[in-house]
Amino acid sequence: MVLYGSVLLLLLGGIQGLLLGLLLLQRKAWFRAYLFLILYLAVMLGQIGFKLLDKWWLMNHLLITYNISYKLPLLYGPLVWLFVRYLADENHPPRLPALHFLPFLGGALSISLGFFNGIHFPWYDLLYRGWSGMSVQLAVIAVYHYFALRLTGRRLAKGDAGRQVLWQWVRRFVVLSWGVTSAVSCLLTLLHETYPRYAALRFGFALLTFFIYWVSYWVMRSPRLFGVNDSLADHREPEKKYARSTLKAEEAERIADALSGLMDREKIYTDPDLTIEKLAARLDTNRHNLSQVLNERLQLSYFDYINNLRVEEAGKMLGSPLGRRLKIADIAYDAGFNSLSVFNDAFKKITGRTPSEFRRAAQKNSKIVPDRSVR
Description:
Elements: H1 2-26, H2 32-52, H3 55-61, H4 63-69, H5 73-88, H6 102-117, H7 124-128, H8 130-158, H9 164-194, H10 206-221, H11 230-234, H12 238-241, H13 249-266, H14 276-282, H15 287-298, H16 302-319, H17 328-335, H18 340-351, H19 355-365
Helix pairs in contact: 1-2, 1-10, 2-5, 3-4, 5-8, 5-9, 8-9, 9-10, 13-15, 14-15, 16-17
């Protein structure tokens, strides 16, 4: 019964992981950092696939691939670190990122040479087999996750207000990844070295399913975290970024005026599904021209611009007699936020106070949030 339960959980994880990968691709998460996240999920899908297939069938038909699958945990650490490293500074990537995959490639090459040519390297047993091999895997996982966490901590300490929510999620992702991938490495070795005594421990690979569902939850809850990296692009110097732009001054003025009028009349920023593409279409322009107008005239990215307007709207509601009786979550959603945590972070970033603190101050002073001059 336990075996069937583990197979079902792994199957659910595999299906969800496949759907998650497709969703990330559809969201155009195609700057390089998120490519490493997609590869990371692909490795997890590979491990789930190997656990769903029959062990004896694999040994009889795909022996080399089956043996190499036990070295897959060596990929998790490098992929996590490269994901965080590119996310922190995509314009100055690390040199020769492929070198970080040498531990895995060394194991895969040794297995292949041993199978086809009968070559056995004396160091293979120490580095890649049994309990010592597990220790090497855990060390690789720990080192890369540690440096990923350290880099994440530096980005949070830097106080890049526009990306605090992203880096908070990245920190949680790295911590959970460290725990899950370490557990998977231990389970692989334990099952391999003691088979079939502890075969029931196969149920432990359900951790991969739970982790995939956790990432999926955040994709649905905060889709901005996994979208196009507008914020990163918009923080470049406007003169360099738009040096080859064909946008005329008259057209930029028209877009700016139309944008201000649209926000004043319809308050479409309160639509939680509003995207830069949808907004550009309403203004009869494209996302690139709109982004240029926001960046050059207001020194804001699209997301910062919309969040400023939403926070301003929320501040007005918090300070109004009616809004004082509403739940803060209701105000957040009415202002256009689709996540209470994102709202709290954005509000604190812009006003310097939490929504609760702002409401208490408004009750004392009857003051409305000051105009952020983003229209």
